[in-house]
Automatic annotation (TrEMBL):
The active site is at 62 (proton acceptor). It comes from Candidatus Aquarickettsia rohweri. One of its GO terms (cellular component) is plasma membrane. The lineage of its organism: Bacteria, Pseudomonadati, Pseudomonadota, Alphaproteobacteria, Rickettsiales. Residues 42-210 form the 3-deoxy-D-manno-octulosonic-acid transferase N-terminal domain. This is 3-deoxy-D-manno-octulosonic acid transferase.
Length: 418
């Protein structure tokens, strides 16, 4: 019943939804390419003589996971062509920067029945792999109608998502049962998924455990280390509105005791960099936006770029992961962990609850509840190298235990391609 209601409502609302997409274009949330592809007015070209594997990743973190899988498949199976869909301009840009062989990028169509039907008929994939848990009922229904196997990798249901989908349990079950396989990221996610469907769900671990470390430039890392060799460096990544204020305030306070402190801030959304610059000026801190301009009196390096985090995780080892003091739910901690960093987060980490719990259990991460606690822990990391090294050692042990997740996923893909 709910599926029918959803289809009817989405059809009735289609003029409003399409109008809203044009509003997003005006506001810069879409461009002409993303809009035309989401409405299936235009399609990307692809070689018609190859089978299509379709990966979908909604945003940046999922895109990076998909890229790691795609690189392996593309090398092993050059006879295949890979379609990658994303939902945001940022994730599309990150994917295109990789310049992968045998791949085509297209934006995911909006979930209107007549639009997704046109999309699937055009691409006609052999198999579809969703990364994490963006569930679009019309899209999934149309894929299922054509008997195309659907795999859900790194399946996750946050507190809010689980609460929402649980309100419509029968509807959610009817969607999730259409997947051939659901591999969950954690035991908690497994327990949540099996309330909707049981036979196709398996817990194998978080994909980030076995995905490759982020790429980095040896030249840039060398420059960072050389320029900042006499500094106590702290890197704040994926920060959101309000968190930069916390960071610059702590920097200023710590500078009273640690005169050579240097802080690097990398906002989650590079478009916010001007806000961070204004904040730094208000606090009368000396900032640069390019390491080439470094002088000893500088306080901050403010970064607004894509695909560069690996450089900073490789060069420095004290990392604050944002979205955890702003009530966002946190961001993935495994990327810095895999590059041997000591990690600090704030109180809001519900998006990665199982990961955080695992790291806390093994004393592999610092969780803080207040800005004062964050300041105290940073000071301790600067002053106590053994404390920092033990954190890094503990996180490395956790990661090494779960290296085979990718192998399981790849074997499953190859099985469905037979």
């Amino acid at each position: 019943m709910y599926r029918t209601i959803y289809k009817i409502i989405s059809l009735i609302a289609s003029p409003v939804i399409i109008f809203y997409m044009f509003i997003r274009l005006i506001r810069g949330k879409e461009n002409t390419t993303s809009l035309s592809q989401k409405l299936t007015i235009k399609f990307a070209n692809y070689p018609k003589n190859k089978q299509i594997i379709w990966f979908h990743a909604a945003s940046v973190g999922e895109t990076n996971m998909a890229i790691a899988l795609i690189k392996i498949i593309s090398d092993k199976r050059p006879d295949l062509h890979i379609l990658m869909t994303t939902a945001t301009l940022t994730s599309a840009k990150i994917f295109k920067l990789e310049k992968l062989n045998n791949t085509t990028h297209q934006f995911l169509p909006i979930d209107l029945n007549f639009i997704v039907k046109r999309f699937i008929n055009y691409w006609n994939p052999k198999i579809v792999i969703f990364i994490e848990s963006e569930l679009w009922p019309n899209l999934i229904d149309q894929i299922n109608t054509k008997d195309i196997p659907m795999l859900l990798f790194n399946g996750r249901l946050s507190d809010s998502s689980f609460a929402m989908w649980s309100k419509y349990k029968n509807f959610t079950s009817s969607i999730l049962r259409k997947f051939s396989v659901i591999y969950t990221a954690s035991q908690l996610d497994y327990n949540r998924f099996i309330t909707f469907t049981k036979d196709n769900v398996e817990y194998i671990g978080h994909f980030k455990y076995s995905s490759p470390s982020l790429s980095y430039s040896d030249t840039y890392v060398k420059e960072l280390k050389s320029k900042l060799k006499n500094k106590n460096v702290f890197v704040a990544v994926s920060t959101h509105d309000g968190e930069e204020k916390i960071i610059v305030k702590i920097h200023k306070e710590l500078k009273e005791n640690i005169s050579n402190i240097f802080t690097i801030i990398i906002p989650r959304h590079p478009s916010r960099i001007q806000e961070v610059i204004s904040l730094s000026e208000n606090y009368k801190l000396d900032y640069i936006t390019d390491i080439k301009d470094f002088k000893d009196e500088n306080d901050l390096l403010l970064i607004s770029a894509f695909g560069i985090l690996g450089n900073f995780f490789e060069a420095h080892d004290i990392i604050f992961v944002g979205g955890s003091f702003a009530n966002i739910g946190g961001h993935n901690i495994l990327e810095p962990a895999k590059q041997n960093c000591a990690i600090i987060v704030g109180p809001y980490t519900s998006n990665f609850k199982d990961l955080i719990d695992e790291f806390v259990k093994h004393k592999a991460i610092i969780t803080t509840q207040t800005t004062q606690q964050l300041k105290n822990e940073l000071q301790k990391l600067f002053n106590d190298s053994k404390y920092k090294e033990q954190l890094i050692k503990n996180s490395t042990k956790i990661i090494n235990k779960q290296k085979d997740v990718f192998k399981v996923a790849l074997n499953t893909i190859y099985e469905y391609l037979k």
